[in-house]
Amino acid sequence: MTSGEQLSWWNPESLGRRKPFLEARRAATKAIRAYFQAEGFWEVETPAVQVSPGVERHIQPFVTALREPLGTGPSPRYLHTSPEFAMKKLMAGGHAVGIGKIMQLCHVWRDGERGPLHHPEFTMLEWYRAETDYSTLMDDCAALMLGVAKAAERTLQDGVMLRWQGRTCDPARTSERLTVQDAFLRHAGIDLLATIDDPREAALSPSQLYRAAEGQGIHVSANDTWEDLFFRVMLERIEPKLGIGAPTILCEYPANLAALARRKPGDARVAERFELYACGVELANAYSELTDAAEQRARFAADRALFTRLYGAAPPVDEDFLEAVEKLPPCAGAALGFDRLVMLASGASDITDVLWAPVV
């Protein structure tokens, strides 16, 4: 092997270097399953191949085709970017037969994603609770973070602490709960809700957010949309400051950035959605589920129109999913990046350190 070549992922030297991280992964898997078993959850399994992966402008799905026997097809299908649609269908039917708490630890796929925190195929932990809202999931997240950190500490003997790029976060500390509006005011000096004109329709003022961002020295472009500006401010000014010392629960996202979440009673501009941060890294996304099928259909139409403008064509609507939304009980669901949590708990510097085998 020449000096410029890298070892294959299966090479003994490569595996040996990663073995402590993989031991932490094994311990984390056991800790997570033990938590949900103690909470009375059903562990479910749903297909990776779906009619629709959902429509999120920043997520590109892998496209495939389904060929049935007797020459029918092919029909377009997608590798799921999350098990969300299938799991909500189980919630819609399962609640009536006593299956009201479900979880799944599964592989998901997202094209065009690769970096220290991203991989085309990764492991997602997703869970749902009936008859509750997103506040219960905040407690779940706290317990899971601490449980995984303790499990990793037993294998690594390196202290119960989350670490990433010189930042630390103590999972035993109470999480700070911070609204998106307060985060923009505190870290960027921007009144975000003032840029949302219509509280019911979530009509946006890109020009107002443009001026506010520009006034704070953030790079802006004439073609920037409201969402472009939102995510740039988040990336540059806010995310690096979240979850430092103690975890941060960033909550009450603008409703236009929470397509599957219930609006917050009393302020239709925001939704009951939160993201969990540690060491400046997003670990989880959760919300109180939208159970109004008509509103969900309208949100899908708006998202598909935007997706089509950006990429030329949007994935189809899963009509079976919309039928399930009509039958959903009040519930809340969360998705947590399992690999990222193991990274932070084990001190790994790259997501491939905690994967048994990367996509090559």
Descriptive notes:
The chain has 360 residues and is of the alpha+beta class. It has a domain at 12-162 and 287-354: BirA Bifunctional Protein, domain 2, CATH 3.30.930.10. Helices cover 36% and strands 22% of the residues. A hairpin with a 2-residue loop joins strand 15 (273-278) and strand 16. The chain is globular and about 55 Å long. The two termini are 19 Å apart. The model has no long low-confidence stretch (mean pLDDT 93).
The total count of helices amounts to: 9
Could you state the order of secondary-structure elements as H and E?
Answer: HEEEEHEEHEEEHEEHHEEEEEHHEH
* CATH architecture assignment name of one domain: 2-Layer Sandwich
> Into which percent range does the helicity of residues fall?
25-40%
What spatial form do the alpha-carbon principal axes imply? globular
Distance between the termini: 19 Å
Strand content: 15-25%
Give the gist of this structure.
With 360 residues, the protein is of the alpha+beta class.
How are the elements arranged and paired?
Layout: H1 12-38, E1 42-43, E2 49-50, E3 62-66, E4 75-79, H2 84-94, E5 101-109, E6 121-130, H3 134-156, E7 162-164, E8 167-169, E9 176-179, H4 180-188, E10 196-198, E11 203-204, H5 206-215, H6 226-238, E12 248-251, E13 263-264, E14 267-271, E15 273-278, E16 281-288, H7 293-311, H8 319-327, E17 331-337, H9 338-346
